Amino acid sequence: MLAEQRLSKILAVLEQQRAVSVGQLCEVTGASEATIRRDLTMLARQGRLNKVHGGAVPIGEEFHSEELDMATKQRLHTEEKRRIARYAAGLITDEDVVYLDAGSTVMLMADCIQAQKTLFVTNSIECAARLTLRGLRVYVLGGMLKRGTVALVGTDTLLSLKRYNFTKAFLGTNGITIHQGFTTPDPEKAAVKAMAQQHAREVYVLADASKFGTITATEMFPLEAATIITDHLPEPHYRDYTSIEEV
Question: Which domains does the chain have, with CATH numbers?
């Protein structure tokens, strides 16, 4: 394959998949890793893509491979997260059975909930503690406690979660893009979030504006599977794919 054809192929694959690895591009072009890396460097210098560790993403989208710890997350976009959490908490009624995950914005909901008879289920130790201190009824899933994010994950968590059906689920996310949907860096966390989504009648993803246009390693579920609650929608075309509430 000629160099010009190879560059066109790289851009075409990127347009279709929105995130590609060097290995994927080697397969579709027949070129070596060294050649693909040089091609990506050239295209990045021309402003036609963003080169990231191990591959590339389109201009305007960022790839994040690592998860921030909870203490760091709680210091970012705090006022926006509080607004989102207050709005989301107002959606909960006494008749609901609610799943709250270990997202930093979801955790703030525990301080805002007014309903008193709701049944809560969570994989977050901190969220469970906050709910309990307020006299609310909460069940904690089993599993392995994840260092840094303090979330319960793994096979035991999924087995515990499988027992429940929820009227509403409130989930966090690390990234939102049209083609990849909702993503998170950790496959174990993604599996828990995906199962919670499957077991809920209404699903809400709480995300401040910084999450839009960001891709992380593991897909949770597509955009149409949840309503997004955000402080600000950076690009209106997301509304073509799902329901979005700006607060």
Answer: 3-60 (1.10.10.10), 70-246 (3.40.50.1360)
